[in-house]
Amino acid sequence: SDASSSESETHRETPNYNNKKIVLQRFTVYNSMHTMYVIGSNSRENLFRIMEIGKAQNGALTILEDTNFFYTRKDVIDLIGELNKSVQGGVHRVGHGHGLLGLIRFTKGYYLSLITKCSQVAILGGHYVYHIDETQLIPVDFLYSKPRKHSDEERLLAIFRNLDLGKTFYFSYTYDITNSLQTICVREKMRAMAHAARDAARDDAPFAHNERFVWNAHLLSPVFASVDDPARVHDWFQPMIHGFVDQANISIFGRKVYITLIARRSHHFAGARFLKRGVNSRGDVANEVETEQIVCDQLHTSFHDPKYGFYNNPRFTSFVQHRGSIPLFWTQDMLKLPKPPIEVNLSDPFYRSAALHFNNLFQRYGAPVLILNLIKTKEKMPRESKLFGEFVKCIGYLNQFLPLTAKLKHTSLDMSRVSKKGGDVITPLEAIAEKSIRTTGFFHNGISLERTSLQKGINRTNCIDCLDRTNAAEFIIGKNALSYQLYTLGFIAAPKLPYDSDVVNILTEMFHDHGDTIALQYGGSHLVNTMDSYRKINQWSSHTRDYINSIKRIYSNSFMDSLRQEAINLFLGNYVYEVGKTKLWELANDFWLHNDSVWMSKNFRTRNSYIHWYNERYLEEAGTVFALCNSGKHCIKTRSDTDADSARLLVPMLEPYPGYINTWWNETYVPRNFTSMEDVYQFNMNSTARYFPTQMTESFEFDFSPFETRKPELQNE
């Protein structure tokens, strides 16, 4: 049309002042009759880029950005003024925010999802991680009118809004929150090394977010389909994870060490507790969450080292663990609460879906996979024990064909039985955690790729819900990992941390919040059994809290889960509206939204053998990368070892590859900007310093070490 062409011409006439890439952190949305304009700027709002979203009559989108243009504030003001004069109906500001999540369509036109409010929750290597507090859904259609009452559009819009994007969704402008720190550091080092070696194939390898944890992948799909250069999509649209992020400062006599917990929930086979159990035909399990524990010494803020260069700061460590439902086909009937019977719906002698699941774990983490199974082994009326026997058979079958070094390692502990008999569940879990960490190791960044220690393999924990018992076990594994991380960084003399010390108390709080958040997302209530329950402390208050949360969980499962499941299926694109297709709210269940037909399944048609169920390449690739780092051995080093390496080895500085945007300094230390200390995230971060006494007297002695127990009866042990 004439109007759209005049808009395009006005845009192109603006002079080219520069050709830099900037990190967009502020977004203003303008709409007109034929085009939506999104004006993005850096955090100081003095450098701008413009994206046009065109609307064709057939409903298709065209997304354009002239990457050769870079605007000043005056350019943008002039451009908006010219558009107001030349475009029929003018341009109108319809939104302002901090990020773009993507575009979605129900029955008619598209909506743009805009982050309008966010808050800082963590900082890693100088890059902030944000929690999404509020969002806005903006119609792309300029002549949009409110949907008719009881129309499909109105109902789908209402279902979409049942998923509260202002709770436990996270993003970052410059940090890849979808991948582990190990993946990021190794990937960036290898790419920089490839450029230095003039290896064009590896140097040009595309940057990839972990799609499994990108919860707005469905909203991004129309964007990728409408642009010429998919690599530039994430300049404008932020990948979003669902889960939990928390960070705390360990104050070690004034030295700052940050603990960061990042829980990433998979968007595959996602949903509410009794509606999503077990595994689907694609090998995705319910309630799958990857939890990463990053411990870093803030001697240097950045991932880069002043002496050794690009991503070679040796003061960063990371440990990853995994939780997920038992990978068998099983369900529970919601109509038979509070303890629905467990039914194994499909007995597959070849365990095809479980094989897909474990093969995917090999792909992501390498071998071995350590399975910590916490379900009940003996019951008067078999419920959980039904699954126990079937799961043991599954592991036994799959292990027949694996090489010795990659076999699935299964450990069982009936936590409920031991706890109810008044026994100690902490001691056996401590022993399991110690063995697990010594088997897989953990990531410790090095001054070069060769001096980097990798975590090889994963600890996979499950109970029935993968909530209460699983969270307690993950905390104990995390506590032991923390002791090794601090030992490796040189802050403690041995990898042991006593309970009731400041550092363990703050980690307990973090895992408690972590467990509560995961439980609310999946079960609809907070944790029923906490670490206090298993450690048998504060018994009266703990039991009261447990009963109340148990009742809340039953209520949520009975009345709210179906609504939440519909919202999740719509948001994730499991259900897409089509004329003549069964409506979302008319489906008897959502089984076929998450499972393939057996005969149409790609996995079924491409499977070569029930014996060679795993991909040998996944084990070989993990071994190759592992061999490049630290000579292929697990190595738990102390700080003195690292210093000795630095003195002994002549390690050249690694330079970044071309095109890498190093913005951490300006993001952390904003230039020419006055900031009150009360507004600085690091100043307000949770810290072990809050355990210190507010007043001191001459007769009062206090040990400021965060590694000493605060219980007098344990101090001499």
TrEMBL record:
An annotated GO BP: phosphatidylinositol dephosphorylation
Main location: membrane
GO cellular component, one term: PAS complex
MF-aspect GO terms: phosphatidylinositol-3,5-bisphosphate 5-phosphatase activity
Location relative to the cell: Endomembrane system
InterPro entries for this protein: Fig4-like, SAC_dom
Ranges for domain SAC: 160-524
Any one Pfam family match given in the protein's UniProt record, by short name: Syja_N
UniProt keyword terms in alphabetical order: Hydrolase, Membrane
Domain of life the protein comes from: Eukaryota
PANTHER family noted in UniProt: POLYPHOSPHOINOSITIDE PHOSPHATASE (PTHR45738:SF5)
Protein name in UniProt: SAC domain-containing protein
Lineage: Eukaryota, Fungi, Dikarya, Ascomycota, Saccharomycotina
